[in-house]
Amino acid sequence: MSDPRYRQLAQVLIGYSTALQKGERVLLDLIEVPDEFSVELIRATREAGAVPVVEVRHGRINRELQRGTNPAHATLTRELELNRIKKMQAYIAVRGSQNANENSDVPGEQQALYAKIMRPVLNHRVNKTRWVVLRWPTPSMAQAANLSTEAFEDFYFKVCTLDYRQLAKAMLPLEKRMKTADAVRLKGPGTDLRFSIKGIGSKSCNGRLNIPDGEVFSCPIKDSVEGVIQFNTPTLYSGTRFENIKLEFKHGKIVDATGSNPKRLNEILDTDAGSRYIGEFSLGFNPYILNPMCDILFDEKIAGSLHFTPGQAYEIADNGNRSAVHWDMVLIQRPDWGGGEVWFDGELIRKDGQFLPKDLRPLNPENFK
To answer: Which of 152, 213, 309, 317 could tie 142 with a disulfide, CB 3.0–4.6 Å?
Structure first.
């Protein structure tokens, strides 16, 4: 029997996030998702008059493919997937995982090779289709969130079916401010960072790209980043967990990187010429997400957080940086996490996770029930 929340979420993804229209084609990219939810997605797609194309994947199979990949295999895969995504108007990825560390024993050079060769598929999907990506709730995610399976599922569906139209309206003033801002300063324990976002642009993320959602992002001018930032949340990248990452910048480049696994950290940051430069700066404010669970689609939206991202920049807010890496690292600035400040052009925008200017206060969590 299908959970009624499956249909509600499917309708959010089809009717709001991708806003599918009659005759449009959508790729449903499903990893370890219950058949019942996959069926609801297909039905919702057809009810909109759109055409569903379905890819079903499994974590252990993906791991095995990457363990033995080589340039010929990765290139063939890229050409097949690139040809398919070019025929789509929309893309929905629902990613479940029984083991978040499934790829932890895939050699780093294999992961880097595969990511580099496959990058054009991701670039086309991000820049040329309407897309939305979300996780699927699993017991391992509940464990990471320190919740029972039932409590986590309740949390998950509450977050994913939030009134994104209200959130979208509230974030427009922040998007406008980020579009016109020049100098940004981030301050907090272990953090004093300066950079410019002048002329880069900004983008509201209001449930049409990720679910859950709740951020506005821009990007530093590539060589403008100076100072140091200390992240206070764990992060999972390519199957490896990292904690206490600290990055030091000079002329935009990461010149020193430390953390719980410095060898692997620096291997990732040495993937290519762009992986030591920043490709995104974002402020997160989803009112229902308060604590990290080592899942970036949730953690980057934490209320009172920001993320700073080594690697690839998005074309919509572009500093020209190109990389196979895009690694969102999260800093929570609420008082219970040490506090902190965000400044735009000498104005204090957010202190200890709370927006201060009148036009930005509707983003604060107390406005959402």
So the answer is: 152
Residue located via tokens 């290519």: 272
- Domain 4-160 class, CATH top level: alpha beta
- In angstroms, the CA 6 to CA 67 distance is 34
Task: Report how far residue 273's alpha carbon sits from residue 214's, in angstroms, rounded to the nearest whole number.
Answer: 30
Q: Are 268 and 276 in contact (CB under 8 A)?
A: no
Note the pLDDT of residue 70: 93
Considering only CA atoms, which of 120, 152, 117 is closest in space to residue 136? 152
Task: Please state which of the ranges 55-59, 218-222, 354-358 shows the lowest mean pLDDT.
Answer: 55-59
Contact call for residues 196 and 220 (beta carbons, < 8 A): yes
Mean pLDDT of 204-208: 90
DSSP result, 256-309: EEESSSHHHHHHHHTSSTTTTSEEEEEEE-BTT--S--S-HHHHTTBTTEEEEE
Distance CA 213, CA 297 (A): 8
Q: Distance between CA 144 and CA 291 in Å, rounded?
A: 10
